[in-house]
From TrEMBL:
Functional pathway: Carbohydrate degradation; pentose phosphate pathway; D-ribose 5-phosphate from D-ribulose 5-phosphate (non-oxidative stage): step 1/1
Subunit structure and binding partners: Homodimer.
Catalysed reactions, as listed in the record: aldehydo-D-ribose 5-phosphate = D-ribulose 5-phosphate
Name of the protein: Ribose-5-phosphate isomerase A
Transmembrane segments: none
Length: 219
């Protein structure tokens, strides 16, 4: 089974968490693209979606799913998104697709976070995947120096501008032993919009695509 087939299995499995007549929070990435394909099969049963990126918005609209502005929505029952890494505590690194800030905002509003991954994303300790940090452009060098003080090796993601008009620093070699503390510390650096640690608001349900089917994990 290929990695993409495992992503697809996880993406389609998330459909069971979508309730009729609700607005669904939709993440970003190749795994989520499979979920959006699945969601399109029940587009007449849901009110619509709130999207975490321009890319997901485009795909949702192409498939005939109405996309709402988050400011016009009171609550979201479920948010479905992928991850670059996830540990046993359901803490994640996200932002490989540079959509971390909007993802974190929609996740904050949602009652339940359903994380969909293939089995390569499960790790004992976060940090092998470089941690994305979204930064206001004029603060890039300052934030990079502060990230070095925290023990990381930040690398400017050349040529990438986020949907919010900012830049991304990918932090290599970060020892992330306490993801909640690290998330808070990095977010306290002036000029950081947010970082890709999703620990203070982690996943509630994890659906892992494997060659033997989809495993469901809850805490
Ligand atoms: C985008 C993300 C994605 O969820 C993450 O990068 C996983 O992507 P994929 O499903 O393509 O492996 O955080 O910002």
């Amino acid at each position: 089974m290929t990695q993409d087939e495992m992503k697809k299995a996880a993406g389609w499995a998330a459909l069971q968490y979508v309730k009729p007549d609700t607005i669904v929070g939709v993440g970003t990435g190749s795994t989520v693209n499979h979920f959006i394909d699945a969601l399109a099969t029940m587009k007449d049963d849901i009110e619509g979606a709130v999207s975490s990126s321009e890319a997901s918005t485009k795909k949702l609209k192409e498939l005939g799913i109405e996309v709402f502005d988050l400011n016009s929505v009171d609550s979201i029952d479920v948010y479905v998104d992928g991850a670059d890494e996830i540990n046993d505590r359901m803490d994640m690194i996200k932002g490989g697709g540079a959509a971390l800030t909007r993802e974190k905002i929609v996740a904050a509003v949602a009652k339940q976070f359903i994380c969909i991954v293939d089995n390569t994303k499960q790790v004992p300790i976060l940090g092998n995947f470089p941690l994305p940090v979204e930064v206001i452009p004029m603060a890039r060098s300052y934030v990079a120096r502060e990230l070095v003080k925290l023990g990381g090796d930040p690398v400017y993601r050349q040529g990438v501008i986020t949907d919010n008009g900012n830049v991304i620093l990918d932090v290599y070699n970060m020892q992330i032993l306490d993801p909640k503390v690290m998330e808070t510390k990095i977010n306290a650096i002036v000029g950081v919009v947010t970082n890709g640690l999703f620990a203070n608001r982690g996943a509630d349900v994890l659906l892992v695509g494997t060659p033997d089917g989809v495993n469901t994990v809850t805490l």
